[in-house]
Design brief:
Among the domains are: 143 residues, Alpha-Beta Complex (Adenine-n6-DNA-methyltransferase TaqI, Chain A, domain 2), CATH 3.90.220.20; 148 residues, DNA methylase specificity domains (Adenine-n6-DNA-methyltransferase TaqI, Chain A, domain 2, Alpha-Beta Complex). The chain is 33% helix and 18% strand.
Length: 416
């Protein structure tokens, strides 16, 4: 029983009827021979560079230009491509040679099918490094079209993929520009340009705050204090895109939170990550009030009249990040102390000016976020569309069929 119906002049075969396995191995090769390991093959196709065989002494597989190299280890069962040169490769890579009855490019696309990958995964063997055997790969069912249609299918796939790749490139380019545009908008907010001010008074951050405090020392909060559900503790990894996202099991009991009450977050505070990535901030809303600032974070408590939404954005602006990068201490991991944070230069805006800028920022950044979401959607859709195109291609549904083509059975001699 074959997996599904195919056009009348197609024939179901085993993959081993469409490609030829290579069993050629060698442990004797010149120092200039090109070497391919799994690290040189990209997922879903692509060979990136190569090594040199001069330092390789063990037995290796031999391949020629036009062969398919296929990674047989389970984490790499979607690593494969057609080579444009000859050489040797790791024994963790299977080598398949083209045959006269099948376009090797069509087989290379077939290896991208979800059904093929699932088959290879479910039939891989081993505990520490599961791998799929050459025999298992060659035994998978393969829908073989007549040779002229094989070429037409490949041409059609390549044409569609080229257009999709171009769309993906444009979406990615727009996505890459998002952070640049966001930085420019925040700079305009920082300088007052966003509301038409020609000059803004700047001062050290501490002049606008009631308190700047590092989270509790490690001796006050141990790993054993964490529980599955309770009062969330906010560390730098929980501060993402100006929002606080708590994590399950990074919480403490109400009694422990009472002990750490001096590190409790209040509405209109700013929480700042003081380790690793600089400028990671978020305003504290009513929802997060009462949560606890973690050891790797800092509380910035603003004076009355200053808006956390606004100054959190200011502290994540390029100017602030550059200041923090310059002044942070530590070689292995950058850290901030209270003195550094107290002296961050910030603009001193009136409450009315802050509110006006926040309204404009919200509008501009909302539009940017919509554009960003659209670009991300396009990128995700491209990959899904490629999968759909391949699925249709191997069902004979790309409009490439020609009833006048001789049946593919004739390619296989006595194969029925």
């Amino acid at each position: 029983m074959w997996p599904y119906e195919v056009p009348e002049n197609w024939v179901w075969v085993k993959l081993g009827d469409a490609v030829l396995p290579s069993g050629e191995k060698s442990d004797s090769f010149s120092s200039g021979t090109k070497y391919i390991g799994l690290e040189h093959i990209e997922k879903d196709g692509g060979i990136i560079g190569h090594g040199d065989s001069s330092d390789i002494k063990s037995l290796k597989n031999v391949f020629a230009a036009g062969d398919i190299l296929y990674g047989k280890l389970r984490p790499y069962l979607n690593k494969h491509d057609i080579t444009t040169f000859g050489g040797i490769c790791s024994t963790d890579i299977l080598v398949f040679k083209p045959s006269q009855n099948c376009d090797i490019r069509l087989v290379n696309y077939y290896l991208n099918l979800d059904k093929f990958i699932s088959y290879a995964v479910s039939n891989s063997k081993g505990i520490n490094l599961p791998r799929v055997s050459q025999g298992v790969v060659l035994a998978i069912p393969f829908p073989l079209p007549p040779l002229p249609e094989q070429h037409r299918i490949v041409t059609r796939i390549e044409s569609l993929f080229t257009k999709l790749d171009r769309a993906k490139e444009l979406a990615q380019a727009a996505l890459d520009r998002f952070e640049t545009r966001k930085a420019a908008i925040l700079h305009q907010a920082f300088t007052g340009e966003l509301i038409g001010l020609s000059q803004v008074h700047k001062c050290p951050l501490h002049q606008l705050t009631q308190d700047i405090r590092i989270g509790p020392f490690g001796t006050m909060l141990h790993a054993s204090d964490y529980i599955g559900y309770g009062v969330p503790v906010i560390n730098p990894k929980h501060i993402i895109n100006q929002s606080i996202l708590p994590q399950e099991k990074v919480a403490i009991s109400k009694n422990k939170a009472t002990e750490l009450k001096s590190y409790e977050l209040r509405e209109n505070d700013i929480v700042l990550g003081r380790r690793g990535e600089m400028g990671r901030t978020a305003p504290v809303t009513k929802k997060e009030a009462g949560w606890i600032c973690g050891t790797g974070s800092m509380i910035i408590r603003l004076k009355e009249g200053y808006i956390a939404d606004f100054y959190s954005a200011i502290l994540s602006s390029q100017a602030s990040v550059e200041y923090l990068e310059r002044t942070a201490v530590g070689s292995t991991m950058k850290n901030l102390n209270e003195k550094i944070v107290r002296n961050i230069p910030v603009p001193d805006f009136s409450r009315e000016e802050q509110q006006k800028i926040v309204r404009i920022l919200d509008s501009l950044l909302e539009k940017e976020q919509r554009a960003r979401t659209l670009c991300q959607s396009v990128i995700g859709q491209v990959d899904l569309m490629k999968k759909a195109i391949l699925a249709r291609a191997f069902r004979g549904e790309l409009g490439t069929g020609d009833p006048a083509d001789e049946s593919a059975v004739g390619l296989l001699g006595d194969v029925e």
